[in-house]
Structure formats: structure tokens, C-alpha cells
Amino acid sequence: MESILRKLRIIKAERAVEGAAAKPAKSVVPAILLKSLVLVAAVGSAPHASGQAGPAFTPAAITVRAGEPPLSVVLSNWSGPVTCGVGRLRFFNQGPTRRAEYIPPDNPEVTNTECFVVDDESVRLATLRITFGDDTTAPVLEFDPSEISVDSGATAVSTFTATDNVAITTGPAVTCTQGSYDPDTKTYTAPVVSVDTTATCRARALDFAGNIGEATLTVSIARETTPPVVTFTPGTLTVASGATAASTLTATDNVAVTTGPDVTCDAGSFANNTYTAPAVSADTTATCTATASDAAGNEGTAALMVSITAPPDTTSPVVTFSPDTLTVISGTTASVTLTATDNVGVTTGPDVTCDAGSFANNTYTAPVVSEDAMATCTATASDAAGNAGTATLNVSITATDTESPVLSFSPGTIEVLEGDTVPVTLTATDNVGITTGPTVRCGRIFPNGTLQRRGSFSIDDNTYTASADDFSRSVLPGLPSISTSCTATATDAAGNEGTATLRVIFRPDRESPRLSFSPATLTVDSGGTGSSTLTATDNVAVTTGPDVTCDAGSFVGNTYTAPVVSVDTTATCTATARDAAGNEGTAALMVSITAPPDTTSPVVTFTPSSAFSPAIPSGGTFMSTLTATDNVDGTITPTVTCTFGSFDVTTNTYTAPVRGFYTFFTCTATATDAAGNTGRATLRGGVSAETEPP
């Protein structure tokens, strides 16, 4: 009895804890307790054996709806008493696994209740949650706070809770668009971001009735703004030309360096904590810049300052005049290029002094002299080390020049055809030097200053070319040759001018273009093709054509295309070409076109082909048009034989015999073509009897 009272106290305590959810009417509590007491007394105490799996209800939660049959449950690993707040379990068997039905009260005044088992120490071991009617209440999920701010890569706390009026059966599960949330530690961990970012974590849970509860945590992630710290140790170096020196490069970051450090130098190079200086001829400074970045895109830099010491400079500047000798007319100028270079650098000059005349801007100006003279110009340049270099320009100054340049064409006379290019050598020399020209003009100048051009002369190639346009205006077919001239002119610094003349004789072109077909004869099947190469050449040039015309078929692109013929046929293609002088040349291609074999018979017809109604009078005549045509031979004259009477093919007339009785006749026309094909036609009719007495 003491055990029963202890169970009653347990039930009272548990019902008090669950009172908020069950909300039973006061009048129902004694009945519940009484039923529980009776159930406990009836079942007895039988806790599960030590070491076995604990008791369990399957399913762990059920929903009871009005009018539906009792719901089945299974209680495993328990043979002792079961306590229900409202209603009861009806068991169907004994043992460690017991099948039962939950029997609800007729009119439950609560929305949910529980059936449970406890051990001897009143510790609840298994619970069956029972909901009356449809459970439409979703689980309640909450982040507190629901909005947090966190630095890139850092963590922040938001308390997450999940409750349900019955029980949560699935979840809660938390997923984040960026970063992660740990429900056990209630901690959000932010990813490393390079820009300010907003992340969302969504929690989701389901209860036994399928109701879904959700909650959202909004996270503002501030980008990481601390750049990496980059250093050279030491930060300055002094290095000999071409030598190396050590400097330790480090790069650290509050999160992590993701790119670099990379080093660029404006002179020399840096690798593996070693700077390598370039070879220099003068003291030089160089800067190496190291750069490193973190995942957020923050960039840190450091500079290594390097002083590069050059070896002593003992090399003088190189000074040159080009050319270093001149011949100049009195009072004139000449161009000379002055250069000054140094292995380090020219710091002074070049300066030029002349003992006669002057030099400036790469130009020597000669003084006016009455007789030939010599002059010397000296250029001097120095570098920073005091090394000096010099150069000398030697000038021959010639007194006033009165001698003209000498020009000549070789040969002096040429004969040309239209379009010809003839080599002619033009030479021009002067006792001092030619300053202008030579230039060449071909043709003649009219009094009004207009030049009538006749061909052209190339000084670069030393050739004369008779153009087609000039030739057509100069020489017409049938006219005698005419001539023109080309005049070359050159001037020296003193203004003396020299000339030379080239005489050009134009010969008219009386030679026709030469045309040929190869081969010149072809044998081609009807409708087929054959190849023949057409060429056209001329002593000057072909200007028109070659054009090809064929009396049968066509010729294009060195290919003859035959027409479709029914009899063997010949065709001729004529090619024509002309030159600028109007001379015409021709060539002929002879083609034999082979027709296919003729197997078609002539078509022979009588029109009309019957003379029965009415019959032909005895001794009378009947007109029937007889024709015979062939696909190859055309119209053919047939031969006609008649069983009675006769047929005249020239008049298309049948003449009946004189008969004393009605007579049938047949006339057969026959025509044969050249291939031996024969065609036939028949005229049939009747001849009436003679009715007039003699």
C-alpha cells in the first residue's frame, strides 16, 4: 500500500508540472488520480531489468481525433505500471514488448496529456505524448538577439531556443548563407570577407503534426581592414656595382597573408632575401618595393633603398665628326654630324672651335676665299670624372666654282615600242659636287609652259619607259616613226648647271597578238565538255580579249561545252584579241561533236486512218494526210503498199479499184531513218460495189 501511495504522489507532482499545457478542469483531477491509482494497483510494479535498453513508446507521440478508432502503440522493455493523465492504455499481451491501444475519455477537457513510466526512485523513463484534435501550433524557434554584428573571421553569440506545444520531431537544423552557427555553443563564426557583407542563418524544425517553425539570424560582417605588415631588415643597403647584399623580407597579417610578398626593383633584382645590383658606370640609387595582400584585399608595402657604387671612371668620351673631311665652296655650307658619347655620361660639350669658318648645329660654314684654302675644326667633350675626348674635322675650301656639272646618257639614242622599258645609264659629275639633281624631264614644253609628256625616265633604275597612253598619242598604226627627247639637269653649289639629252624614237606597232588553242581540235560527246588551253601574247601587250565565240556550244575557262545533238556535228570556236595599236589576232578551235546512237523509229501517221463510214465509192478517191518524221533525219518520204487500190504519197490520195462487190482494203506506209529504224502506219477502209450498169 505504501508503494501505491508513493505512485499517487508522483502523479500529483507530474501533473502539477504539466498543468500549464494540459489545463485540466478541477473536477477532473480526482477522477484522473483515481483512475491512475486503480491502474497502478491493477498492473503492479515491474521495473525493467538492469543492463537492458530503457523503456520506449513507439510512436512517442500520437494525435487523437474524435470519431477515429483507438490508436495502437508499443511499449518496449517494460512490464510494470503505466500512468496516463487522461484516458488509459489497454494492453493486449504481457512481456517486455507489449502492444496496446490508447482509449481516450469521451469528452476530454484538455488539448494534450501524457502516459509515462517511472522507476522506483520516481524518475521518468519513457513518455507517450498525446494530443487531442489537430495540432496546428508550429514549433517556436528564436535567436536572441536576432541581429548581430561581427568582424571578418570573428565569432559572436546569439542564444537559440526551440519549443513546441507537443514535441519537436525533426530538427532544429541551422543553415547559414555565409559562415556557420553552432547550436551547442550558440556561437556564429564569420568567414573572412574583403567587403562588408550580410549573412543570414535560418533555423527550421518540425513537430509530429508536420507544423514547421522557423527563425532567422541576420549577421552584419565588417570587412577586415588591417593590411599586412611588410618589412625589409635592413631597409637600406650599399652595394658595389654588380655585387649582392642580404636583407630579410617579412610579411605578417592579423589574419593571414594570401598573396606575396612580391618584390619589384627599378634597378637590379631581389630574390631569396638577396639584392643583386646591376653593373653601373656611375653611382646609382635603386628602390625595391615589396607588396603583400590578405584575403580581404588589404595591401601592405615596404621599400628597400639601395645605393650602388660604381667603379672609378677612366674612360674618355668618344667624339666623332661624320664625315671627318669636307670639300666646300667658298662662302657655302656643308652638313656634318657631330656626336659625343661616354660610358657614364657627357657632362660638358661637345664644344667646337674652327681656325677658319664656323661650326654650329651640325653645319660647317666656309669663309669667302679668293683661292683654295684649308680649315680645321676641333670638338671637345668631358665627363664628370674629368676625362676629355676630342675629334677633328678637316675642310678643303674651294674658291668660286665656274665649272658646270657634266651629264651624259649612255646610249644617247634609243628606239622603243609602246610599253617598252629600256635600260639607259645616266651619269652626273662635278669638279666640286652636285647639290641639286640630276632631274630628268621627257617630252617638250609648249610656249605656254605646258609639258607634253613622252614616256618617263627613272633615275633610281636608270631606265626609260614608253607608256601606252603617251605612245597612242604619238604613233598611230600606218604612220612613220616619230621621236622625242629626255633632258637631264644638275646644278652645283655655285649655281653652275649641266644638261644631257636622250633621243627617243617611237616605232609603230604593226604586229598582231598571237593566239592559240592547245589542242586546236577536240572530239566531244553530245552535251559533254573538253579542255583546250587558250593563250594570247603580244610583242607589246594584249589590251582587249581574248574573247571567244562558238557557232555551237560555248567556251569558258579553257573548257568547251558541247550542245546536245542527235546527229554528229562539227563546231568552230573563234578567239579574238587586240593590242593598244588596234592589231587583231585570232585562233580557231575545231570541235567534232559525237551524237548518241539513234534507236528511235520514225513516226508515221495517216490522218484520218480509217475510211469505212462512208465507204469509198468503187473507183473513187479518198484524201488522208500521210506524214513521216524522225528525231534525227527530220521529215522522211515513206513508201506505201495497198491490198487493193493505190496510194499516192505526193498527193496524199487513195484511189479505190472498180469492184462489183464491197471490198475491204489496207494500205501500209513504211519509213526508215539513216540508223535503220523503221516506223509504220496503216490506212484501212471499205470500197462499195459498182452499181451502174455498163
Could you provide a short overview of the structure?
The protein has 694 residues and is mostly beta strands. It contains 4 helices and 64 strands. 6% of the residues lie in helices and 54% in strands.
Give the domain tally: 7
Low-confidence stretches: 1-50, 471-477
Please state how the strands of the largest beta sheet are arranged side by side.
37-45-44-40-41
Which radius of gyration do the C-alpha atoms yield?
64 Å
Proportion of helical residues: under 10%
Molecular structure report:
The protein has 694 residues and is mostly beta strands. It has seven domains: 2-132, no CATH class; 140-222, Immunoglobulins (Immunoglobulin-like, Sandwich), CATH 2.60.40; 229-309, Immunoglobulin-like; 318-398, Immunoglobulins (Immunoglobulin-like); 406-506, Immunoglobulin-like (Sandwich); 514-594, Sandwich (Immunoglobulin-like); 603-687, Immunoglobulin-like. The protein contains four helices and 64 strands. A hairpin with a 4-residue loop joins strand 44 and strand 45. The longest helix has 16 residues, at 2-17. Mean pLDDT is 86; it is low at 1-50 and 471-477.
